[in-house]
Amino acid sequence: MSRSKPEQAPWRNFYGRHKGKALRPAQERDISALLPKVALPNVSWDENPERATIDLSGVFGQSDVWLEIGFGGGEHLAHLAEIHPDVGLIGCEPYVNGVAMMLGKIRTRALNNVRIFDGDARDVFDVLAPHCIDRVYLLYPDPWPKTRHHRRRFVNKEFIDPLAAAMKLGAELRIATDIEDYVRQTLDVVGQHEKFKWCAERPEDWRMPWDNWTPTRYEKKALREGRKPHYLRFERV
């Protein structure tokens, strides 16, 4: 039995910024010409109103697939693409200025293993097949520091449940933050989730970055302002 075609996307709260200062002419050209070429296909509701599952093997071949949620200016995502050319990388970022910065890196470094979704990561979760993602990065997410805004943080069940469904058994979720209360909520929500296991065995495991780490602009700002980064790894079990 076929599903009825939805008339429009469901309404979802979105609290982040979509655009900042005006883009430079080269960035405008990248948004109009390059983004359609490197966009993750069949994610938007206009393209895929039936929410059919994406065939990632048709996008990346048989490569492992890693996902970065909220890649900011793309420093880390571009670094991953360069040192892991055999891995397929999906980057989600709704902030158009950050997307433009990442597109510039894709163009100047000739990165061909990255696909971008310039919208809400939940739209990607809708169309990912079960157990298709090998690793996930969430780096310096918006901390939403006010208590009444903590439900807006990514580390809530609304996000973590569908993310867990998309991750392969044994896949890793890596989270970096300089906000101690975000660490607490992450350990409460992700660390206590039935489908995740915190990988730390000693303090150095959350004080030291992972191998081949490159600092993002947000980490550099945190260090300048005297805040300590925390690096959390969880295994999908």
- Radius of gyration, taken over Cα atoms and rounded to an integer in Å: 18 Å
Q: Count the strands? A: 7
What is the tally of helical segments? 9
Overall, the morphology is globular
Q: Beta-sheet strand percentage? A: 15-25%
Oligomer: single chain
Indicate the structural class: alpha/beta
What topology, given as strand order, has the largest sheet?
Answer: 3-2-1-4-5-7-6
Average pLDDT over all residues: 91
The residue fraction in helices comes out at 25-40%
What's the main sheet like? Answer: 7 strands, mixed
Query: CA-to-CA gap between the ends?
Result: 33 Å
Order of helices and strands: HHEHEHEHEHEHEHHE
Description:
- By secondary structure, the protein is an alpha/beta fold.
- The protein is globular, with a radius of gyration of 18 Å.
- Mean pLDDT is 91; it is low at 1-5.
- It has a seven-stranded mixed sheet with strand order 3-2-1-4-5-7-6.
- It has nine helices and seven strands, in the order ααβαβαβαβαβαβααβ.
- Helices cover 34% and strands 18% of the residues.
- Helix 4 links the parallel strand 2 and strand 3 (114-117).
- Helix 1 crosses helix 4 and helix 3 packs parallel to helix 4.
